[in-house]
Amino acid sequence: MEPDVHHLDAEQAVASLGPIVIRVITRARTEFADVDRVATLIDRTLERSPIAGVWVVVHHGAPVPDLSVGRYASRALRKYGDRVCIAYSLLGLGFWAAAAIAAASSLSELMGTPGPTESTIERGAERLCMELVGVDPTRLVAAHDLLLERIQAIARRDEPCR
Predict the structure, then answer these.
(1) DSSP H/E element including 7
(2) pLDDT by residue, tens only, the chain of 162 residues
(3) Residue numbers of the domain that contains 48
């Protein structure tokens, strides 16, 4: 089963797969509209499922969200309480990884929803699936890989000829 893609561009993708909203970020700065897009998908998911998962996969070099966007996300997502579980896969090294981990931890604290932060795709998928019984982490990994391929295809098409 392929993910249902709701937004796709050269820097990010937002999709759903069963009760899970997936956001893959390669270069996009998280904006207010991105938070609203995810919240809308969470609302739709909760109409048909008692719990929703959110998996945010951030690739090395993506900008850390502005503090104002973090506060906005906190307010927007806090209302779901324990009906939403969040996991982060932050794929990078060095200073970037430290900043990304700090941002994800701060956002989780602001929302009052602890979200595990992992450094691999596989571990992030496994951690989220621990909360969502019956969801196969290998399907999430495959969904990530497909979304990443689609992002990269758009990015290649958008690159200027040299």
Answers:
(1) strand 4-8
(2) 799 999 999 999 999 999 999 999 999 999 999 999 999 999 999 999 999 999 999 999 899 888 888 889 888 888 998 899 999 998 887 777 777 777 777 766 666 666 788 889 999 999 999 988 788 999 999 999 999 999 999 999 877 655
(3) 4-156
pTM for the predicted model, two decimal places: 0.90
Residue 161 inside a domain? The answer is no
Tokens of 57: 């996969």
Q: Is 162 inside a domain boundary?
A: no
From residue 108, alpha-carbon distances to 112, 113, 115, 158 in Å are: 6, 5, 6, 34
**Cα 67 to Cα 29: distance, rounded to the nearest angstrom:** 12
Identity of the amino acid at 6: H
Phi and psi of 5, rounded to 5°? -85, 125
> Closest Cα partner for 35 from 76, 67, 79?
76
